[in-house]
Design goal:
transcription, D-Maltodextrin-Binding Protein, domain 2, 16 strands, LysR_subst-bd, DNA-binding transcription factor activity, Arc Repressor Mutant, subunit A, alpha/beta, single chain
Length: about 325
């Protein structure tokens, strides 16, 4: 049984749900009516809508039958809109203006002319690779505003969790039910040393490192934990210098302070001119993740940036592998 509520809306008593009234004019009828009002004839309206003239006539006749009153007066082969038609047309144009605004917004999102992209990343990635991806992304979306900030892992995760519309790029695992991660690439941890300090060859073992001055990370850092896993049961040397990032370790190695284990993303082509780069044994892979809020799906621009960054990271790892061979 159906009853009107105090607002006049009809509800189904059994389900207490509003009954959806059918439109007085279908969207196709409204579209055809508007085209006739704009062009002044059924023939021209049919051309505007890419339909036949008989089809346009049938749609108009069905609309007038449905509403129960004429929309146009016919006189000497011409159509003259009734006062009711003019009132309807004013509302139709208002609705179409709203649709046009929606279309403009969608196009702006597709073309990167609307919104903002907030990117935070691990320091090694923020030194060169993420900026390179941003530069490529900016060529495609030159009008999109970007906020970019390298952060340590302990600061990156809270920023993505608590910030609005943040995209994180991290080299380390994330343990949070409120964050979603997507794997981008896997890269091998590397050992770097001043030229000639370690035996030539493609790889070194952790047992080869203790005789040399050692640059290490704080054991409370993600890199420190990874290096600890690599050493396993082997003795981990006491460091001559302790740092918080692989970038700092790389600079110290370049200055011949000692040897270090670093991620592959802080190394570039210029590194090979001043530093020896080796595979480390036992091998350990480092996975780069895109990180974002579980409650806020990535925007179209965010998805596009991830694809760009993934391509940059893959190219970088291929280049590093080629330089080592």
């Amino acid at each position: 049984m159906h009853h009107p509520d105090p607002t006049g809306q009809v509800t189904d008593v059994a389900s207490d749900a509003p009954i959806q009234r059918p439109l007085a004019m279908s969207l196709r009828q409204i579209e055809t009516f508007r085209a006739i009002m704009i062009t002044g004839s059924i023939t021209e309206a049919a051309k505007m809508l890419f339909i036949t003239q008989p089809s346009a006539s049938r749609i108009l006749a069905a609309a007038e039958s449905r509403v129960g009153f004429p929309l146009f007066e016919r006189s000497k082969g011409r159509l003259f809109p009734t006062p009711e038609a003019r009132r309807i047309y004013n509302e139709v144009e208002t609705a179409y203006a709203g649709v046009q605004r929606v279309d403009d917004l969608v196009r702006a999102i597709i073309e990167g002319r609307s919104g903002k992209l907030n990117i935070v990343c691990s320091p090694s990635l923020g030194a060169e690779l993420v900026p390179r991806a941003i530069a490529l992304f900016n060529q495609r979306y030159p009008d999109l505003q970007i906020h970019f900030e390298p952060l340590t892992h302990n600061n990156l995760i809270p920023r993505v969790l608590l910030g609005k519309d943040y995209l994180g790029v991290s080299m380390f695992g994330v343990n949070s039910n409120h964050l979603k991660t997507e794997a981008l690439v896997d890269g091998p941890m590397m050992c770097i040393s001043p030229p000639g300090w370690l035996a030539p060859g493609g790889s070194v073992r952790v047992s080869d490192l203790p005789p040399h001055p050692w640059i290490d990370y704080g054991h409370d850092t993600p890199l420190g934990a990874i290096v600890g896993d690599i050493f396993g049961k082997h003795r981990r040397p006491s460091p001559i210098v302790e740092v918080r990032s692989a970038i700092s370790a790389r600079v110290l190695v370049k200055e011949c302070v000692g040897v270090a284990i670093v991620d592959p993303f802080c190394i570039d082509a210029s590194t090979f001119q001043r530093i020896d780069v080796h595979e480390i044994r036992p091998a350990r892979k480092l996975r780069v993740h895109a990180v974002y809020s579980q409650a806020e799906p990535l925007s179209h621009a965010g998805r596009a940036f991830i694809r760009t960054l993934q391509s940059v990271l893959e190219d970088h790892l291929s280049a590093i592998d080629a330089l080592r061979r």
